[in-house]
Amino acid sequence: MKLLKPFSDMVLPAALFYIIYNAVGIIPAVIVSLLYSSGSAIYSKRKGNAINNSQIIGILGLLSSAVAIAFTGEEKLYYVPSVFGNALFLGFMTILSVRHKSVLHYLAKDFDIKSLKEIPEEKMLRINIVWMIYFALKVISKLAGILYLDFNKLYWLVFVLGDPMTILVIIISVVLIRIQYSNINRNQ
Prior knowledge:
By secondary structure, the chain is mainly alpha-helical.
């Protein structure tokens, strides 16, 4: 059941949004997404769990997307706030890298991962490059999609580069950590 919840948290909102968008339009789909995200955060809080930064960022992103659509009437502008958000994260990751800090340590601070805390940040700086490439890809693909794709194609592109690609980048990060950690242990 524990594996089902993260999967449903990833797929259910996307499917719900897409179905409602195709049935009645962008504004109702955004409203339902906001209600679902807010309900999920409230549910987490009532269960005694902390509200994750990603939940707050998601809700704020949906609010800003709704404002962009409401004032312009252009549904593809739904992605403009996330382009800015991704560019901001990319800039932040660049600053962390320049300061020799681990992006992964920062991203995982909402989770209690003891093994990650054991690895010094300076030993994980190569992983920063993977995350920076990922966020650069997200920014470039959304900008290109806004300019050249219809909303449906852009939606699926953004979905694939969202949670599924994040999972892939996490797996790549774990593999790099294991390689790095095994090299540390061999050198001791």
